[in-house]
Amino acid sequence: MSELLATQLEKLLPTIFNFCARMTLSTEDAQKATYETFARAFGGQPPESADELELWLLKIAAHVSEKRLPAEAEVDFDLLDDTLRSEATRNTQIASLTSPEREFLLWELKQGCMTAVINCLSPGERIAFVLSNVIGKSDEEAARTLGIKVSAYKVRMSRASQKIGDYLAPRCEHIDPRNPCHCPSRIGNALDKGFIAPPRGEVQLRTPNRPFAGEIKSPDASKIFRTLPPIEVPAELLARLRRAAASGQWAKERG
After folding, report:
1. Who contacts 76 (Cβ-Cβ below 8 Å, separation ≥6)?
2. For residue 149, how many other CB atoms are within 10 A of its CB?
C-alpha cells in the first residue's frame, strides 16, 4: 500500500466524491462508488507521484461509476423538463423563507439541475464532460485517465457539449437572463417533486462568499459547470474511509 495514498486520502477525497456524485445523480450511489474507488486503490499499486495519483484515482472512479450505470441514461431531457417545468411557476412556498434558507435552496436547485442535465448524457459522454468541465482536467489528462486517444476524447466532449448546450440555450437563465427558466420561480415545483429537499435545522451556507444572484451567466454552458462548487463530502463517508485506511482492512481483504 502506498504511504502517499494514505496521507493524501483526505485531500483527494473531495475530487473523487464530486466526480462520483456528478456521475450517479445520487448521494447514496456516489458514496458507494467513492468507497469502492478507494478500496480498489488501497489494494492496488498506486503511483508514487502526487500529480499522477489523482488521475489514477479518477481512472478507477470512472470504471467503478460506469460499471454501476445502465448502458443508456435513465434521465432524459424530456423527463427533466417534466419534473421542473411542466407546471406553472409557484412562489408561495418560498415567500416565508429566510434569506439563508432561500439562498441554500437556490444553490441546491442549481446544483441538482445542472447535475441532472449531465445525467441525460450516455455514460461515456458523461465521464468526458465531468472530467473536463467539472473536475477541470485538460483533454490530455482526461484522455489518459480514460485510456483513450485525445482525438477520441475530443469527439466525446464535442457530442456531450453540443447536447448540453442545445438543451440549456433556450431554457436556462444562467445561459441567457431572458430565458424562461429562473431558479427562484422553480423552487416550489422542485420541492413538491422531491427534486430538492428543504434544509434541516440551522442553515449552513456552502457558498457564503458567493451570492447566488451574482453567479456567472454565459452563453457557453461549459463555463457555468466550471463555476459550480464541489458537492460536499458526507461526514459519515470520510469517517468510514478513515477507519478502513487506519485499520488496514483493505490490505487484509486483498491479502
Report:
1. 120
2. 11
180 to 79, 87, 165, 209, 218: CA distances (angstroms): 18, 13, 16, 27, 15
CA distances, 56 to each of 3, 42, 44, 131 (Å): 15, 12, 11, 13
Residue 43 has pLDDT above 60, yes or no: yes
* pLDDT for 232: 87
Q: Model-level pTM?
A: 0.87
Q: How far is CA 209 from CA 67, 133, 179, 232, 233, in A?
A: 37, 22, 26, 16, 19
Which amino acid type is present at position 137?
K
Q: Cell triple for residue 143?
A: 484522455
Q: Are 121 and 129 in contact (CB under 8 A)?
A: yes
Give the pLDDT score at 203: 45
The amino acid present at 248, given as its one-letter code, is G
Work out the angle at residue 6's Cα, subtended by the Cα atoms of residues 5 and 7, and round it to the nearest 5 degrees.
95
* Cell representation of residue 73: 441514461
Nearest to 37 by CA among 133, 211, 18, 185: 18
What three-state secondary structure class fits 181? strand
Cα-to-chain-centroid distance, residue 109 = 13
> Domains, the chain, ranges and CATH?
3-254 (1.20.140.160)
Share of the chain above pLDDT 90, in %: 48
For residue 102, pLDDT beyond 90: no
What angle, 0 to 180 degrees and rounded to 10, lies between the N-to-C axes of helices 139-146 and 50-68? Answer: 60
- pLDDT tens digits along 71-90: 777 778 888 888 887 765 65
